[in-house]
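Sample 1 of the test manifest.
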Amino acid sequence: MDLTGGFGARSGGAGPCREAIGLESLHLGDEFRQLVTTLPPDNAGGSFTALLELPSTQAVELLHFTDSSSSQAAVTAIGGDIAPPLHSFGGTLTFPSNPVLLERAARFSVIATEQQNGNVSGETPTSSVPSNSSANLDRVKTEPAETDSAVEKQVPSPNQTNRSGKRKDFEKKVKSSTKKNKSSEENEKLPYVHVRARRGQATDSHSLAERARREKINARMKLLQELVPGCDKIQGTALVLDEIINHVQSLQRQVEMLSMRLAAVNPRIDFNLDTILASENGSLMDGSFSGTAMQLAWPHQAIETEQSFHHHRQLQPPPPQQWPFEGLNQPVWGREEDQTHGNDHSNLMAVSENVMVDSANLHPNQVKMEL
Amino acid sequence: MQPTSSMNEEFLKKWQMGLQIVRPSIDNTSVSERKKAIKLSADIAMASLRKGTTCWSRALIQKTATEDNFLVRQMLSGIKEEALINKRLPKKVVCHRKIVRRSKKILRRKTKSACEEAAAKAKKLVKRRTQGLRNVVPGGDLMSNDVLLLQETLDYIMSLQTQVNVMRSIVDAAEAGTEQ
């Protein structure tokens, strides 16, 4: 138990600096691997070097079974961010990968004590690990199955082994389910997936799945909040949903309103592509009035419709709530239509021709490409 | 996440095609008829942009197909319109009434603390809003889970914004023409 205490304190103290190292840690991890594998065997001086050279399972056993003083020494050696380069290596080999070792050590110690206490939640490593060193953590996690079995041998108690078996099953399940998401490069190296459980969170598969689902929903919500104007400052799911519904309804109402306006203003929808093509060259020259009108109204729209949209919105912001469309505006539109019909018909014809020419001007090349 | 200009152009192209098909039938009709046709064609154009990859577009196409089957078929020609129109949407999940009642009874039996009660109330609010969103988004009641619903809502809002942008620019141009 004193082991975990020491590690917890260490890792807690080294937290911020580890976050800074987080990016380099992958590289450092590789270096550490090389170091461990290429260490000459005659270097084994103290208990710590012996621990380093042994495979991880035996290392755990060592950690577990050495007396408290030596393990404490190992702890200080591992956790020594400020500690001088290790003398047991003969001074030539400095120790570059403190964060990796720290996490590995924390992991081992926690697994060991976990088996002792029967505490399944595994809070210490996950809570103390910063999020940006996740790849690092994966590396460290590469041999939990072995350690599990090793520790099982040490502490053979029926219900605890049962628990660890369950945990292993769960880890396998998670692995298989989220394997697809990873890149292939990661897939080779990191067989384990971490669905993290923070302190006090449950770790059975149901609650983990529920948590993953909730995270997904929250991510979508964030995107929606970005998309819907004026929604990003609202807190609370219900209010955000309210705002989204309002936005969708307002857009739908705008579509209704716009189609009504178009129907009222332009009774003869002349989007005939054939006539457009036929008059594309001619209308620009012969239609003097339509040409001028178009050039006055449409120079920027011909370039980009988005810009014009913003422009128009700045000029006359049409709040959709002011267009309660159903019964109220119907007579107004009818009257306007009557007026326009009453004015003169040639004007309407001009308008329709205008729109026609505009559309031709908007996408002449597209139209050509179609044909 | 703003709609792109390529989307605008594509929508405009589709819509023009739809209006061209619609035009002979609504030349000399009332405003409401014309408005209906214009809106229908715009809706189909918007839905056809997605080519049936999203749930809402499929639902919208089917809904418009019940109103004007000919137009939909004409506008969707080229992108497997039969498959889209007749595609069976996922069935609505309907719970048996007895089961629901029984489960509610069981739920009621539990005594709740104040905190739990507040959480339940918040959950209920969110649930009601989600139901409202389902009613607003076409085909929303067919989307089985909330994640799918939100994703489709995202896409639907994007498409609606494209539609509104293009239609607004067209209408503004037309009205500017009348004023002159």
